[in-house]
Amino acid sequence: MASGQPHPRPPSSGRAAEVRRRFAEEARSERPDLATLCLLLGAAADGSLDEAGIDAAQMELDRLAGQLPYRPGGPHAWATAAHRVLGERFGFRGTAADYQRLDSSLLHEVLRRRRGLPILLSVVWLEVTRRAGAPVYGVALPGHFVVGFGAAEEQVLADPFDGGRVLTGADAELLVVGAAGVPLEPAMLEPADALDVVRRILNNVRAWAATRPERSDVGLWGVDLSLLMPSHPARLRYERARLLVERGEFADGAEELEEYAGLIDVVDEGAAEKVRGEARAARARLN
């Protein structure tokens, strides 16, 4: 978070272990629940988010869903209704300053502040309109997350970061070009599933922490949750080992570096030996 903003207090070790257990269980379930995963992610960051707080956040999503009109019509009508209720009446939207705040990636805080990153505001749109019966899904555009309503042939996009403004095709093209410098392609408009959304949120959390060495604790729980996902890149193991070394946990970091070197040895002996050198350097710092 920016200077002057209080940091969430991390949970106790016991609570953190319980949160990780439940996160892994939910992520590997047959139909992972997006809101539950996002709230457990929030509990990994914020020790003040207890079970009552998680239940209250779920109830707030239910309450907001009850404010939407009953079956307003087709995809455009759903998008317009969500814009009017969530964006205009309740004031959910984002600002440039939200990118500097960790709580912009925590669903319970986004519900409280009505501010957040595009992907977390999209989670609010998804969970609220889904509860109301909308044909809604996330759309992971490069550099900017939005929501889609309706099947591909009648798809309507909305940008929750901009209060849920309904996008034209030209608007979506400009978003992608502006954020990623590439043209909009049809494959970019495919629905993102719950695990895709959570992976992207965790990527954002780890990127936030990477520029703030004093918040290596955030980077560590971000990696730990990422490693609990059903599939993840092996390089996350290296990221975790490096974080441990940066935090002064030299023995544990060295051990994980050696394990990662063993994983990659069969595909890149040179890279593996370099990692083993990092492990030796970490162990030397114990003396």
TrEMBL record:
Residues 1-25 are annotated as: Disordered. It comes from the Bacteria. Residues 57-203 form the Protein SirB1 N-terminal domain. It holds the Pfam family Transglut_core2. InterPro entries: SirB1_N. Belongs to the UPF0162 family. This is Transglutaminase-like domain-containing protein.
